[in-house]
Amino acid sequence: EDQVTQSPEALRLQEGESSSLNCSYTVSGLRGLFWYRQDPGKGPEFLFTLYSAGEEKEKERLKATLTKKESFLHITAPKPEDSATYLCAVQARGSTLGRLYFGRGTQLTVWP
Amino acid sequence: GAVVSQHPSRVICKSGTSVKIECRSLDFQATTMFWYRQFPKQSLMLMATSNEGSKATYEQGVEKDKFLINHASLTLSTLTVTSAHPEDSSFYICSASDLAGMNTEAFFGQGTRLTVV
């Protein structure tokens, strides 16, 4: 069964304090791993797609990396506006394009 | 990225009534859309896959007669919660992918907060 586990559940950082979020996955053939940001009461906002082990992608203060078993979302020098829930999802080969299995997310709070 | 619009963003209804939620792809055609449900501090749980011009595919445990899905055009899918009860109160979110370029990213609507009183 395809599974996605995210840790930690919640993370509090002081502004400027870098850290990483973890996403461990088990999937029967990975088509892609996705990171989303979700603000309270909103739908998820797409951040990154990673397709193969060793791949890295960056966007502003965020950097996503992928291995065969897990992905990390590195946050460098975060700001309060980075506070949100970060969701990891996988898409399995053979599944309908666009169908995702989500983890529970990491709730990030960045305080000034 | 592609834009998916969901309406309404919030709805309050009386127990026993039905509520319709719309999901539109604004700048691309979506032969397939997905409907998710999210409880507080929980993950998004896939409810069903909406297929243009054919019947939706429901996940195990999701009542198809309770959650009616219609995907009548390439840009619109609707989810109707029939005979709503307080336990149906939740956050409902749709997604779609722009498959014309074989893109795998799924883009999400803004979500609909349903409260049944």
Secondary structure layout plus pairing:
The complex is a heterodimer of chains A (112) and B (117).
Chain A: E1 3-7, E2 10-14, E3 19-26, E4 30-38, E5 45-50, E6 56-59, E7 62-66, E8 70-75, E9 84-92, E10 101-102, E11 106-111
Parallel strand pairs in A: 2-11
Antiparallel strand pairs in A: 1-3, 3-8, 4-5, 4-9, 6-7, 7-8, 9-10, 9-11
Chain B: E1 4-7, E2 10-13, E3 19-25, E4 32-38, E5 44-51, E6 57-58, E7 67-73, E8 76-81, E9 90-96, E10 107-108, E11 112-116
Parallel strand pairs in B: 2-11
Antiparallel strand pairs in B: 1-3, 3-8, 4-5, 4-9, 5-6, 7-8, 9-10, 9-11
Question: Can you tell me about this structure?
Answer:
The complex is a heterodimer of chains A (about 110) and B (about 120). Chain A has about 110 residues and is an all-beta fold. In chain A, about 0% of the residues lie in helices and about 60% in strands. Chain A has strands at about 5, 10-15, 20-25, 30-40, 45-50, 55-60, 60-65, 70-75, 85-90, 100, 105-110. In chain A, strands 2, 4, 5, 9, 10 and 11 form a six-stranded mixed beta sheet that branches. A five-stranded antiparallel beta sheet of chain A has the order 1-3-8-7-6, with no helix packed on it. In chain A, a hairpin with an 8-residue loop joins strand 9 and strand 10 (about 100). Chain A is globular, with a radius of gyration of 13 Å. Chain B has about 120 residues and is mainly β. In chain B, about 0% of the residues lie in helices and about 50% in strands. In chain B, the strands form two sheets. In chain B, strands 2, 4, 5, 6, 9, 10 and 11 form a seven-stranded mixed beta sheet that branches. A four-stranded antiparallel beta sheet of chain B has the order 1-3-8-7, with no helix packed on it. In chain B, a hairpin with a 5-residue loop joins strand 4 (about 30-40) and strand 5. Chain B starts with a strand and ends with a strand. The mean pLDDT of chain B is about 90. At the A-B interface, strand 4, strand 5, strand 9 and strand 10 of A face strand 5, strand 9 and strand 10 of B.
